[in-house]
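Need tokens for this chain, all 385 residues.
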Amino acid sequence: MPPGGVASTESPRADVTIVRDGSYGVPHIYGTTRAGVMFGGGYAGAEDRLFLMDVPRHAGRAELPSFAGGSPGNREMDRAQWAIAAYTAADLQSQLDNAPRPYGATGAQLVDDVDNYVAGINPYITKALADPLLMPAEYAGVGKLPTYWTPTDMIAEASLIGGIFGKGGGNELRSAMTLEAFEQRFSTAAGRAAWSDFREKNDPEAPTTASQPFLLTRTEAPFNSHPYDGAMPSIQQLVQSIDRRIRELNREIASLEDARSALISNGPAPTPTPNARAKRARRQQSARQAPRRKRTRKRRVLLAETAEQLLAQSDGLTTAALAEQAGADRDQVLARLRDLEIARRVRRTGQRRATRWHAITDEDRIRERAAELASRTRRSKQDGD
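Here are the structure tokens for all 385 residues:
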């Protein structure tokens, strides 16, 4: 039984069961086969963060601007990725095809795991395309829809992540070159000892939230007879650890307050910290932008009222005609129609989840909405008469 009880249970395939706990909705994946567990991992991952998975998929192929927009940061990320991993589709596929050669059975198992993981992502995409309420709202923001994954997408994403850790996430290459130089100068044993002195494997000054290690224990999974490593500290242990850390922080805060008081009484006022300067800059920027935000809100209200009036009076108008009569761009009219439809659904259902509804982009839905509002207006006039 997951912590907090069971919130939901689903089996997207016969050999896997996904149980979400009642505390935070964390998926616990149980499978009768390894393939089933990998399938469940892909399905649960897409269920929780499909759009977040899609961003590095495109970044790994150096195609981020075409998906999320051509901002300078996105273009620079593409440039950096293409410089370190300029793989074609054939290159990515060859990495999968050749994995069993150097790694044998482990490589073949890796390819099989990737295939099953991707096979779990795609069924959820099918469901999301059929039900807009399951579609992450970010896709409407970038004007895209998710496409089905392939195993080569995983290789492209792995090249991105590997580049991040190899380039800036650990300096592995420089560390290896330093070790080699030390061993050449001081002998193998002495050089490795000198290198270990420089290596930050365990920084004693790093902030921590736990004051003691926790050993893994063996527990029984609820949906099969195979044990799994589910080690977690008990609630009592966590509370004690948190209490100790709070006491330590309180002592540090008291010490800092004493030092600050001494500086104020014995010397000039302390220089504002970077954090304080940043807060002041944000307040000043917000004050400068306030009139523009007010104008933007006023324009949105006016445009919303204009679009609502046009829809109430229209009979099969196209979006181009609506834009012409509103004196606005077609994209602006579409955006307001989308906002009006979302607001209507929120008022009708009372569910914030309705804001996930996808953008209106086709003429048939616009005409349907216009006819609905026109019919409602006629009924209101008849009732008034």
